[in-house]
Amino acid sequence: MATAVKLHVKKGDTVLILSGKDKGKEGKILEALPKKGKVIVEGVNQVKRHTKPSQVNPQGGIITKEAALAASKVMLVCPSCKKATRIAKALEGQNFKRACKKCGEVIDK
Fold first, then answer.
1. DSSP assignment, residue 73?
2. Hey, what long-range contacts does 94-98 have (CB within 8 A, 24 or more apart)?
3. Cα atoms in the 13 Å half-sphere on the side-chain side of 91
4. Which of 5, 35, 87, 106 sits most deeply, having the most CB atoms within 10 A of its CB?
5. CATH classification of 1-53+63-77, choosing from 3.90.25.10, 2.30.30.30, 3.30.420.10, 2.60.120.20?
6. Counting Cβ atoms within 10 Å, is residue 107 exposed (0-12), middle (13-18) or buried (19+)?
7. Alpha-carbon span 109 to 89, nearest angstrom
8. Distance of alpha carbon 107 from alpha carbon 7, whole angstroms
9. H-state helical runs in 1-109
10. Are 63 and 52 in contact (CB under 8 A)?
11. In the chain, what are the domain boundaries?
């Protein structure tokens, strides 16, 4: 994927995992990777990495961290109605904002 894809979620959004071993879990997006079409969600899709000793980690050892997963596998949770929802475009002034399809509330303030 050479060009960046517009993602329906942003850093800091709460999302629901739709598929995979963590299906049904909710988490906060730590990082969005639009060039890869992936997101990193807090506490989801954890992998173990074997690390050599370094100045930051002089002991070395096995570290557990979150790996990226496809943005299509997550669904935004509306902050006002607390339900997983799709995104609608709402015109606010001159700009389009993200809005909840279920309650109609604008997500981007």
1. G
2. 98/8
3. 2
4. 87
5. 2.30.30.30
6. buried
7. 13
8. 15
9. none
10. no
11. 1-53+63-77, 80-109
Asked if residue 109 has pLDDT above 80, the reply is no
Dihedral sign from CA coordinates of 87, 95, 42, 34:
positive
Instruction: Copy the structure tokens of residue 96.
Output: 């389009």
Express each pLDDT in 44-68 by its tens digit. Answer: 999 999 999 999 989 999 999 999 9
Question: 84: which DSSP letter?
Answer: B
Q: What is the DSSP track for 58-97? A: TT-EEEEEEPPEEGGGEEEBPTTT-SB--EEEEEETTEEE
